[in-house]
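Methods — Computational structure assignment.
A single polypeptide chain was analysed. Its primary sequence is given first, followed by the predicted tertiary structure written as structure tokens.
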Amino acid sequence: MQKQEILETLKKVRENSRKRNFDQTVDLIINLKQLDLKKEDHKQDFFVNLPYGRGKKVKLCCLADEELRKEAESNCDKVIMHNDFSKLKKQDIKRLAEENNFFIAQANLMPEVAKIFGRILGPRGKMPNPKAGCVVPGNVNLKPLVAKLQKTIRVTTKNEPIIKVAIGIESMKDEELADNAMTVYSSLEHELPQGKNNINSILFKTTMGKPIKVGEKDEQVKGK
């Protein structure tokens, strides 16, 4: 996939997407082929740092004890202290999962985090993840991690051979969206067992718009 192809597709996406009263998300959808997701090395689950970020603030929740409290309160949107873990109800944890994009946890608390938060955060892909740097020591400086997470997305196949990630919002420039998309594509190509041979098709869409395939001709788009 070339950057010029992405730019041409994004132009069609904009031309065929009605203006809404909110800043729509721009999604990148990649359909995969010749993968057996029962095999561990065929599953995809990694993090990508977008050069231009998501275009919107990423919300962070920190699970900490007193050692990390000051750093957490200075850098994160929400802080849950260790001594409050047991007070949380199932509905409270669900609300936290809905409101926050990433969870950061102090490493020594992870056994309790897994026990109390795991059933809800796990299926949502929001457990504090070492791959994203979200499991930290108590004496860490959180500022660099928080800055990095503002531009981080998770790329995963889940249970189907398809990748769907938000690469930005409508108000961003096409050049920025294209660079973000190229970063995801290049990272995925590197991770796939057969590289680009495992990629079947690539599409872009806005939240309320129709998906448009890279390479799709104008008459095909209009015929949808």
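Note: The beta strands are 25-32, 45-49, 60-64, 78-81, 102-106, 135-136, 152-156, 162-169, 199-206, 212-213.
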